[in-house]
Amino acid sequence: MNDPRADALRQWITTSLRVPAGSIVPASADASFRRYFRVSLSAPWDAADRAATLIAMDAPPPKEDCRPYVHVARLLEQAGVHVPRVICADIAQGFLLMTDLGTQTYASILDVHTAPRLYADALDALVLMQRARCEDELPAYDDALLRRELMLFPDWYVAHHLKRTLGPAERRSLDAVFDALVANNLAQPRVFVHRDYHSRNLMASTPNPGVLDFQDAVHGPVTYDLVSLLRDAYVEWGEECELDWAIRYWERARKAHLPVSADFAAFWRDFEWMGVQRQLKVLGIFARLAARDGKAGYVADMPRVARYLRRACARYPELDGLTALLDALEERTPGVACAR
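Above: the chain's sequence. Below: its structure in C-alpha cell form.
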C-alpha cells in the first residue's frame, strides 16, 4: 500500500538516529488523525538507552500539532509521572520519536483480580499529575470550552445518531441544564487535567502506570480526571467500587494538599456533576466518530456512558430536565443507547 508519510517517517528516523530503521508496524490508533508506529532499529541507537523498540508518532499537519504533546510531556515528566520520553521531534513534518511503554494497556488486563492494584497505582499517578505546576502553562478549561463540548450532545448524538430535532421547549430545558453544569464545573478548584485519563490511555509498566494521550491537557476542575478513570467509557465497575476508589483518591488528595473539599459528600456531588458534563460530551464524540469518521465501533460503548449519565441525573432535581429529555428521546427511538 502506498503510504508517503510512512516512507518519510522511516527516512526521518534513520537520519535522526543515524541508525537504519528496521520494522515499522502500527502500534495503536486513537480517535484523532494521529498514528503511532512501533519501530525496531537495526542497531543500538544510544549506548545509554538500548531499548529494543521505540514509538513514532505521525501527526500530519495541519490536522494535528505535535507541540502540545512535547510541552505536556515535559510538564508531566517534571512532576514525576511516567510518560514517554521524547527523543527527537520534527514539528514541521509532524513526527515524534519516543520511548516505548510497552503493549499492555490497562483495558487489556483489567479484571477483578488486577483492578485493586492497577487502580491504586492510577490514583497515585493522578495525584502526582494534579500537583504539576501548570496554571500558566496550559489553556484554561473555561466556559467556552465546556460549552463547546456540551454542544456535541445535541449536534451529533441527538441530531446525527438519533436523527432527532429538539423542539424549542426541549432546547430551553437543555440549555438550563448546561448552564447549571457549567456553573458547577467552573466553581470547582482547578488543577492539571489530562482530559482522557482512562483504561485505554494507561499502560501497565514499570513504574506503573505509563500515561499516554495527554496532549489536550488543560487547567481545570479537580474532579474531571477521576471521572474519566472511574466512569470509564470502555470498562464499567459497580458503584460500590467507584465509591471505594473515589474515597481512596480523596484521602490521597487531601494528604497531598490538593484543593479537594473537606467534605466527601460535597466532593462526590462535584464528581457526579462533572461526570454528567463528560458523559454528554462523550456521547457526542462517539456519535461524531461514527457519523463523520466512519468509526462505528464506538457506538457499542454508548450504552455504558448513557448508564452513567442516567444514574447521576436521577439523584439531582436540578437535572430533572435532562432526565425528561432522555426519556423523550428513548420513547421516540426504542432501544437506543439512552435506555435505562
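The mean pLDDT is 92.
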